[in-house]
Amino acid sequence: MNWLCVRITFIAALCFVWQNAAVLHAQAAPELPANPGQWVNAPPLSNASLAGKGVVLWYYEEGCPSCRAKWPALVELSKKYEGEPVVFIAVNSGNSRQEVEQYARQTRVPWPIIVDSTREFEKQSGVGEISLRNIYQVRYIDAAGKFQPGSVADMDETVKRALAGAAWKVDPAGMPTSLRAAWQAVELGNYAVAVPVVKKALNDRQEAVKVAAARLDTFLQDELQKEIDGLAASSDKWTNYKTMLSIVERYKGFELPADFKTKGSELHADAEVKKQLDALKAFEGLKKGLTSGSPIVRKKTADKLDDFITQHAGTEAAEQAAAIKEQLGGT
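^ that's the sequence the OP posted. Answer follows.
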C-alpha cells in the first residue's frame, strides 16, 4: 500500500484514554480540543496554529440571562478588532453540542465555540466551575503563549493585552477579496484548505491576485520546508513516520519533494513502523468493544487489555491500552 494513502486516526485513539486532568500551571495555556465534534462555528483550532496571535477565551453560563445580555456588546467588541491578529473563542459550560448550536443560533454568536460537555477544558483552564454562581470568566493567551486572566469589567483592555506582540503570518494588506478566505485558512493553520485556492490564483488574470497568491504560496512553501527540515532532528522512525503523515495531510495538494516521498515509502516498509501500525489497527477493534452498548461486550473487551498490552509491548497502542486499563481501575 502506498504510504501516502495511510490515514491513522491518532487523535481519535488518544481520545479514548479517559483522563482525570489536573489544573494546568497558571502560565501554561490549556490545549484546545482537537476533536471536530467539540467545535461549533469553526473547524478545530490549535495552540500551534494560533501561535503568535492573541486569543481571547470567554467562558459563559448558558442559563444566565446576564450572560445572554452581554453577547451583543461582546460581538461588537470583536468586530472592532477585525483585521487585528486576535481570535475570540467562546467556551460553553457542560452542555451538549446540540444545545450549544441552539444557543449560538439564538444569541447570534459568530465566534468559534468549544463544546466543553465534560468540562474538561474548563478544569484545565482553572476558571472554576462556570455556573449561576460563577456566570462568566475571561482568559487570554498572548503572543508568547502565556495564559493570563483578563478583566470582565474591561474587555477592551483585555483584548489589547492579548494583542501585545501579536502578528499575522502573512500581512493581509492588499489581500484581494477572492483570497481572504484562503488567507484566513493560512492564518489558522488550515493549509490544506488554502492550497487549492492559492494554486489556482497563481494563474489568475488579475495581477493583484497573482501577487497576493504568490505571497501566500511563498509562506506555505517555506513552512513546508521547515517541517521537512525538522525531521532530521529525530532519529526515531515511528515519530518521523507520524510527522510525515501529518505533513502530507496538512499540505494536501502541494507537490512534495521526491526525496520526501522516497523516505516515506522506506519508513512505511520498516519493521518497527509496521509493528506500530499493526498494533494501532488491532487497537481500533478494542476501542469498538470498549464503547459497545452491551455491558457484557465492554467487560469482555476490558478483560483483553492485559493480553493486548503484552502482545504489543513497546508500541504506542499498548501505552494507550495501559492508560485505559488504569482508568478502569486495573492493576
